[in-house]
Design goal:
The protein is an alpha/beta fold. The protein is globular, with a radius of gyration of 24 Å. 41% of the residues lie in helices and 12% in strands. It is built from 13 helices and eleven strands. The longest helix is centred in the C-terminal third of the chain and has 35 residues. It has a domain of 268 residues: Aspartate Aminotransferase, domain 2, CATH 3.40.640.10.
Length: 488
């Protein structure tokens, strides 16, 4: 059998599509067979599979039987309608078809020459998405800016840290990396710290500024200004601010307008990490949360989180020259001639790796097969479902909503009795473990101001009101054993 045979692909491709379609149907129709959080123990799979690869081909049917019996039990079902943990990794028929097409064509578009359509479609589609987000013209390819699809938000923040570092080093001349300082809040995603360390920024020069409930855990501009002034007085060189729209813990929103003015005044690069909530900003009613982006140097969203583009797809917009200057390489074997060289984009110079998938295909298909208004309505539906859950919490005196809900994440907990926060944290931790052990729903947690908080994030494409209502019933049922104790 040849590795690629069109007739084998036709036959087995149909079988695979049927298998995946059945999986989604069963997630809805037979939820009892698919615990949302996998219930297996570590190492379960090793005893179920051979200790070496087969010497000869095995039938697809036998392989899929193993998937059903051995692999699926070890999955946490991110696409389950009862998945409410972390943030969703949204999928869709359009995204899936785009992945199929990308895998089938299997092109590598690291330069314009290696697949002109892959490069040009990415430029166009990211301009489309930038316009839906109402980004300033300098983030468009027609306005001397441009977009690139990174794999994840972690990759996006890494490349802009490197670009900002390159810019400041050229500006100040010869200097030590030990003088460079960056700023973010204590709610900023952990990938920011990792990006800084990879970029050579010293751990002690990463300023994670304290947030609290008074600002709904948004980064306080006054603290940023004070930290920059203090660092300048001590001979440090501030060069990067990472602002977040929709933090991981609580979906907090950093105030971009004042932060952008600070960044502009001091000549500091400001990046906007809008991985989760930036997707919602295609809706006019949520666009206000990225007001001030005009003073940013870069912004990214994860279209695989809430724009139904499937893993992985993280659009990043940036002022082109700064990124290319930091990441460009020119090996002889990649040199080529075109008639309009100055108009050609080579995406190898916008990212860490050389190889890259044709990710823009699935984003293009999502935008075309659903249309902007349907995408807005999908997001609005999730926000309304989160509001529905929030109402349940607010109506139960044994629970409280902990932070302002901006999007589709509700942060809540069992309330303390007699001010005993330690006991309250213990009870909420036990409630989380108990609820998740049922396999009926999956929620996650965070810690805010020393309080153990439960997170209920709506975003799975199959989720409907009935799933939210059932989730609340399950939470209340298992909370009752804590509520009815004398001390609780």
């Amino acid at each position: 059998m040849k590795p690629m045979d069109s007739e084998v692909l036709r036959e087995q491709g149909h079988i695979m599509v049927d298998f995946i379609a059945d999986y989604y149907k069963n997630l809805e129709d037979s939820p009892q067979d698919f615990p949302v959080l996998s219930q297996v123990q570590p190492g379960y799979l090793r005893d179920m599979l051979p200790d070496s690869a087969p010497d000869h081909p095995e039938p697809l049917k036998e392989l899929l039987d193993d998937v059903s019996k051995k692999i699926i039990p070890g999955l946490t079902h991110w696409q389950s309608p009862s998945y409410f943990a972390y943030y969703a990794s949204s999928t869709s028929v359009a995204g899936f078809l785009g992945e199929m097409l990308s895998a089938g064509l299997s092109v590598v578009g690291f330069t314009w020459l290696t697949s002109p359509a892959a490069t040009e479609l990415e430029v166009i589609v990211l301009d489309w998405l930038a316009k839906l987000l109402q980004l300033p013209d300098n983030f468009l390819s027609t306005g001397n800016g441009g977009g690139v699809i990174q794999g994840t938000g972690c990759e996006a923040v890494l490349v802009v840290v490197l670009a900002a570092r390159d810019r400041i080093m050229k500006k100040v001349g010869k200097t030590s990396l030990s003088q460079l300082v960056v700023y973010a809040s204590d709610q900023t995603h952990s990938s920011f710290r990792k990006a800084c360390l990879i970029g050579g920024i010293h751990e002690e020069n990463i300023r994670l500024l304290k947030t609290d409930s008074s600002t709904n855990y948004g980064m306080p501009p006054k603290s940023v200004e004070e930290a920059i002034s203090s660092d300048l007085a001590e001979g440090f060189i501030p060069f990067f601010i990472c602002a977040t729209v929709g933090t991981t813990s609580s979906a907090a929103v950093d105030p971009l307008v004042p932060l952008g003015k600070i960044a502009k005044n001091y000549g500091i690069w400001m990046h906007v990490d809008a991985a989760y909530a930036g997707n919602a900003c295609i809706c006019p009613e949520f666009r206000k949360y990225i007001d001030g982006v005009e003073n940013a140097d870069s912004i990214n969203i994860n279209a695989h989180k809430w724009l139904f583009a499937n893993q992985t797809c993280s659009p990043l917009w940036v002022k082109v020259g700064t990124l290319i200057n930091a990441l460009k390489t020119n090996p002889e074997y990649l040199e080529y001639k075109v008639s309009k060289r100055n108009e050609v984009v080579n995406y190898k110079d916008w990212q860490i790796s050389l190889s890259r998938r044709f990710r823009s295909l699935k984003l293009w298909m999502v935008l075309r097969l659903y249309g902007a208004e349907n995408l807005r309505n999908f997001i609005r539906d999730h926000v309304n479902l989160a509001r529905h859950f929030e109402d349940y919490v607010a109506q139960d005196a044994h629970f409280e909503v902990v932070t302002t809900r901006y999007f589709s994440l509700v942060c809540f907990r069992l309330v303390p009795v007699d001010g005993d926060e330690d006991k309250c944290n213990e009870r909420n931790r036990e409630l989380l473990a108990t609820v998740n052990s049922t396999g009926q729903i999956f929620i996650s947690h965070t810690v805010l101001s020393g309080k153990f908080i439960l997170r209920f994030a709506v975003g799975a494409p199959l989720t409907e009101e009935k799933h939210v209502t059932e989730a609340w019933r399950i939470i209340q049922k298992h909370a009752s054993k804590f509520i009815h104790k004398k001390k609780y």
